[in-house]
User: What shape does this take?
Amino acid sequence: MVSLRRDRGSLVLSFVVPIAFFSMFAIIFGSQHDTVGRVKIIVADQDQSRASQQLVKGLENEGSLVVLLKPAATKSQPQPADYTAATAEAAVKAGDVSVALLVPQGFGDHPIAFGGGAAGPAIQLLYDSSDQIAPQMVGGLLQKVAMTSMPATMAEEGMKYSEQYIGSYTPEQQKKMKDGLEQLQALQSRQDAGGAAPAASGASGDGGIIAVKPRSVVGENKNNPILSFEAAAVGVMFLLFTASGSAGALLEEAESGALDRVLGSRIGMTGLLTGKLVFNMLLAFTQLTLMFVWAWLVFKVDLPSHIPGFVVMGLCTSFAVAAFGMLLASMCRTRAQLGALSTLLILVMSAIGGSMFPRYLMPEGMQKAGLWTINAWAIDGFTKVFWRDLPVTALWQQVSVLLAVGIVLFALARRIARRWEYA
Amino acid sequence: MNDLSALAVAVPSATLPLEVDSLVKRFGNVTAVDHISLNLSAGECLGLLGPNGAGKSTLIRSIVGRVIPDAGRVTVFGFEAGSAAARETLGWVPQEIALYPRLTAKENLHSFGRYYGLTGSKLNEAVAWCLDWAALQDRANELVRNLSGGMKRRLNMAAGLIHHPRLVLMDEPTVGVDPQSRNRIFEMIEALRDTGMTIIYTTHYMEEAERLCDRIAIVDHGRIVALDTKEALVHNAFGSSSQVLARFEGADGKVAVWVAEHGGRMADSPTDSTAQFTVQHPSEIAALLDGASAAGLELMDLSLRRPNLESVFLHLTGRELRD
Assistant: This one.
């Protein structure tokens, strides 16, 4: 007991880490009982008919969706145009959203697909198959919205079908139906103005009342959608462990007196730390390469077609994790301290950074917090390379962040290592 | 005791391997080095003796450039301590086994050689010389953690000499080794001296300093309290006097009174009746014997001892524990 109390590293690992982790998982998953995660989707209304506008309005009123009709305004484009089929598809491919709905021209002529077959063109649901939840959710909500937001349209469409298959109504019947339809439309307008959707009657999936044609625009030709994500996610987490363990050699040198001896030679502290950084970076890159080669050979992840992107992301990630390891080693006094601190930090970073489960499953706040981790940027970059097949130039954001993180962490490590330099 | 400033001008300063001028280093309220001045001639072996916490290690680390002094100056062959040129000419054997335990003896030497910029055949030659000097050729490919304590010590010394420095600082290189290994280390240091290398040797063992060092500096409370050859130190402290140890029967107060009356002092232990006298000439012993007999004291044992370096050390630094 006394030994445990004096070994702060073990103490932290024994009591603080489990509590920290329980709290983190409770935040990620526990919150989903209270609030449904909001899914961001793009809607491109090419029809602009009354029916399509009602549908879009219904989607906008849906609490679990965030509907984007146009890109966010920027300095260069203060008034961006509405999404088109092409820009919506590009946004899904770039990973801005997981789902886009294209409401085609002519949708309003025959919006309802009674009996499972559509008389008019079907809505296209473009999705990224790395997110296996959002497309299902949006598909179901689309049917629900059609049921609850478009009663007048449904009635009108029913009358058309009735006339088509049963025969024409008498003028008196037509007048009554027209009056009823107008009342229904007036009621629908009031509900739309109030912003509240009627009570849900349950979502339908395939074969719903609106014809939907789903199409995967990212990863349709991949062998296994989750594998390249997993390779990056798991890889980065273990790189962090390897880098901090390897950087711990510095502490052994300090403890044995070898560091003093080295600093008494030609090598200065900057030279020594730089040498260790380069070694740890190459070690991490080798580890990552082995992992992806294994994933390619055994699990058919397409490495050969993505070599440039892999090298760029691999080197930047390795640089950042090596600098992270150097910082931890320079902060700690002993190996035991380093072990405790690195385990705690790496597990937390991996949990909120997406190495343990995809970030899109997390609440929005947690997703934003994840951007403070190396894991999130590295995984985003590898996903762009292996999943979205984007060119190396599309990695500029991830590359910039990882390089900046590496430089800042290494500069901090160098600053803290001054304690070993002179007395 | 010698006048240190007089010693400092004995050799033209530009050629001196080491010049320490009024060096001061404080850690908080503690003055670890207090205005130390010291010069070393080429090929000289200087012993640094002092109790624990006397300031020896701080002085050594100041010479290596690992401690920034608060005042004063240290130059190595005319170069500022800690400068690249000073590091090139300086070898340092720390007290700890400052080696990589998971590397072999040879790999360790290669690593430290590269830290000094050695490459290719020069590095290989230096490694071979070190292994030969430390008598470790047949253990060259052994992991350091598997070597014996004596072998590690020898390798630790060799690593400090990999770049063939002209001045070597050895900080207690024989701590924790058996007599055979110590003897081997003495032979290694004597071999270095024969090549004309300048050496500073820190130790707690007086016989090591007596055997290896041309001059000895006794350091206490951050100052050099004496610096000279062994003979001069003894002479300066005790002149031509010798010590007489007399052990009496019984341990009563009568013995102590008589010893005090005759200028002696009792041994530190209250249960022991051994007295210590300082005599200028052995002929004075007869008078002591007569006096004891006249006082009715029964003498059990008598010995004459010439003062040695340990006597000087205890005389100058006192007998109280410092740890």
Notes: Residues 276 and 316 of chain B are 18 Å apart (CA to CA). The longest helix of chain B spans residues 179-194.
